[in-house]
Design goal:
18 helices; about 425 residues
Length: about 425
């Protein structure tokens, strides 16, 4: 009994238990400190955006008004209604059903509950939801791998605070843009897909696609996951049925203008007219230079399904971010945040191995060099003020690093799924 190798000495066992408890206590203390730093970093910019006057949330007004219009003529956003939003009498006739509305008809269905909410409550609530969406771009990918427990939480919140403190995100939250919410839904769907929660991932992607079409790219990456496809199409089908019912009730149709947003030159307000020639050349060829390899990678993934669809979906999401960065207005670059978070959080989900750490560090330095953070601007930065063209090289770099992660995960053994 004394010489049995399967029974360690009591003293050694006690020492091992004490060492484990000490390491656990240190990890918990480090996580608590990281969470406190992240909150102290993120709360001021978010509070500043949320507490801005509701009249500044101009991009939320069409979404709110379209839901009102869908209920019937008596709900139109007349000048009397808009006066409650902007605190002044507008000279025009209000928002008409024929005005430009670059959202799918299902968006009005999702926004129907907002017609019962006062504008003074809706504007800050929508900004808070957008801030949570941006935070999800960092936190959700950190938990893409199972078995990590809460260890990645502290560093993930630090990455979330870093993203929330960018000028791009602050401006998008103030304007009431839908991009931060859509980006968060895309990131959550990617993380659920990586963990094998296909049904939930499809449900989240379906809600996001009903709001705006970006999460549809995940459907192409997950065609082999039946639960994901059925859940996503089921949610979209239910929202489409609601939109059809509203149309049958007399709601006006909507017009999508996605091609115009991606191809036409952006307004000069988003440009400084001092960009280097290589950046303008990159903007002209971005869709093809990034899109063709992405499509080939997608086809290869469907033929040889290694690495899982989440890595492929991240590449396609990065392609969408690259296509929109610099193409329209400042806030369009928010679409790149799921890919940015997918790279920055790679070391948190895969462990502190050389390749994930190097990829995250490369993207961080690229964002700093491009001048899109609030860190001290380098002399070579592309912009000292927020505009989406400065995010174009960041989006391209995030796409390239997503491809690197896809390749690394494709070399891993096949999942039993």
């Amino acid at each position: 009994m004394r010489g049995d190798p399967d029974l360690p000495a009591p003293v050694h066992g006690g020492q091992s238990l004490s060492s484990d408890r000490l390491r656990s206590a240190v990890r918990n203390a480090a996580t608590a400190i990281a969470c406190a730093i992240a909150l102290a970093w993120a709360v001021p910019p978010v509070q500043k955006a949320v507490t801005r006057d509701g009249a500044a949330a101009v991009d939320l007004v069409p979404l709110w008004c379209r839901a009102r219009i869908a209920l019937g003529p008596e709900w139109r956003c007349t000048p009397d209604v808009l006066e409650t939003v902007f605190h002044r009498r507008l000279e025009d006739r209000g928002i008409d059903p024929d005005d430009r509305y670059p959202y799918p008809p299902t968006t009005a269905v999702l926004f129907l509950p907002t017609v019962a909410v006062p504008w003074s409550v809706l504007a800050p609530a929508w900004r808070i939801l957008g801030a949570l969406g941006v935070a999800a771009c960092a936190v959700a990918p950190a938990f893409a791998a199972a078995g990590r427990g809460l260890a990645p939480l502290g560093p993930a919140l630090l990455v979330a605070a870093f993203l929330l403190d960018t000028r791009l995100v602050g401006g998008s939250l103030v304007a009431g843009q839908s991009g931060p919410v859509i980006a968060g839904l895309t990131a959550i769907s990617l993380a659920l897909l990586a963990r094998g929660r296909d049904g939930w991932a499809g449900t989240v992607a379906g809600v996001g696609a009903g709001l705006k079409l970006l999460p549809v790219v995940l459907l192409a990456a997950a065609l082999r996951r039946r639960s994901f496809v059925l859940a996503c199409l089921g949610v979209l089908g239910a929202l489409a049925a609601g939109a059809a019912l509203l149309a049958w009730n007399g709601a006006p149709p909507t017009r999508m203008e996605l091609v115009e947003v991606m191809v036409n030159p952006p307004p000069r307000a988003s440009w400084t007219r001092t960009e280097p020639a290589w950046l303008l050349a990159l903007w002209r060829v971005r869709i093809y230079a990034v899109g063709v390899p992405s499509v080939l990678l997608l086809l290869w993934s469907l033929w040889r399904p290694r690495g899982g669809p989440a890595a492929t979906g991240a590449v396609l999401a990065a392609w969408a971010g690259t296509a929109l960065a610099g193409s329209h207005q400042v806030h369009e670059a928010v679409v790149a945040l799921p890919a940015v978070g997918w790279v920055l959080a790679w070391p948190l989900s895969a462990g502190l191995r050389p390749l994930p750490v190097a990829a995250a560090a490369c993207l961080f330095l690229g964002m700093w060099a491009a001048g899109v953070t609030r860190l001290p601007v380098l002399p070579t930065s592309l912009a000292s003020s927020p505009h989406s063209l400065a995010w174009l090289p960041v989006a391209v770099l995030a796409w390239a690093l997503c491809v690197v992660r896809w390749g690394a995960e494709a070399r891993a053994p096949l999942s039993p799924r």
